[in-house]
Amino acid sequence: VKQYTFTINGERTVALKGAGDVHDKSYDNYRRTYSAFQNMGYSSYSVVYYPNSDYFPAILVIGPIVGCAVIMVLILLVAFLVGAYYFIVNRQLQQKQEALDSKRSFVRFI
Questions:
Q1: Within a 10 A sphere around the Cβ of 15, how many other Cβ atoms?
Q2: Strand 4-9, strand 45-49: pairing
Q3: Which of 22, 23, 55, 94 could form a disulfide linkage to 51, CB 3.0–4.6 angstroms apart?
């Protein structure tokens, strides 16, 4: 089985990278295989293709990290606002309860 590695530059430019499998091994999990001429009675050829660093710009890696950080900050902000609201409302209710208790004890005193 002979293998050749090509690089596709742009939309239609193809350049021979070398004989054998010389692709970037860090992209092995993105492997796709296409069987050419399988149903036409010709010898079967398999085209295996991988992306490279030109296909995956850094924004695709940084984008999800930034998105996750923004969502986490929003969740923490909402949690803080809910906690502050609960604290303020609870304090007001406690003050009203104390005022009501002091009125009742004053009425009992008289």
A1: 9
A2: unpaired
A3: 55
Identify the segments of the chain with pLDDT beneath 50.
none
Q: What is the pTM of this model?
A: 0.41
Which two three-digit tokens encode residue 74?
A: 């929003």
Q: Does residue 49 contact residue 34 with C-beta atoms inside 8 Å? A: yes
DSSP string, 84-100: HHHHHHHHHHHHHHHHH
Which residues touch 50 (CB under 8 Å, ≥6 apart)?
23, 24, 27, 28, 30, 31, 32
43 neighbors 61 (Cβ within 8 angstroms): no
Positive or negative: CA dihedral 48, 54, 55, 61: positive
Q: Where are the alpha helices (DSSP H) in the chain?
A: 59-109
107's tokens: 């009425």
Residue pair 4/14 in contact by the 8 Å Cβ criterion? no
